[in-house]
Amino acid sequence: MTLVNTQAQPRHFVAIDMGSNSFHLVIAREQDGSLQVLHKEKQQVQLAQGLDEQARLSQEAMDRGLDCLRDFNQRFSSLSQAQVRLVATHTLRVAKNRDSFIEAASAIMPYPVEVISGHEEARLIYNGIAQSQVLAKHNLVIDIGGGSTEVVLGQRNRPTHLSSLRCGCVSFNERYFDAGRLTADAFKAAQAAADRQFSSLSKDYFSGDWQLTLGSSGSIKAICEALLEEHGDEVVTLARLKRLRLKLIAWGHVSHIQFANIDDKRTPLLAAGLAILISFFRRLPVTQLVFAQGALREGVLYELAKIGQYQDIRLRTVDSIARLYHVDPDHAAKVRDSAMALFEQVADAWQLRAHARLLAYAASLHEIGIHINSKAAHKHGGYIISNSDLPGFSQALQQDLALLIANHCKKPNLASLDELPQPQRLPLVRLLCLLRLAVLLNLGRNAHSLTLDRVQAGSQGLNLTLPGNKRKLSLFLKDLHREQKHMSSLGLELSLNLQDKALRD
Question: Keywords for this entry (predicted)?
Answer without folding.
Answer: Hydrolase
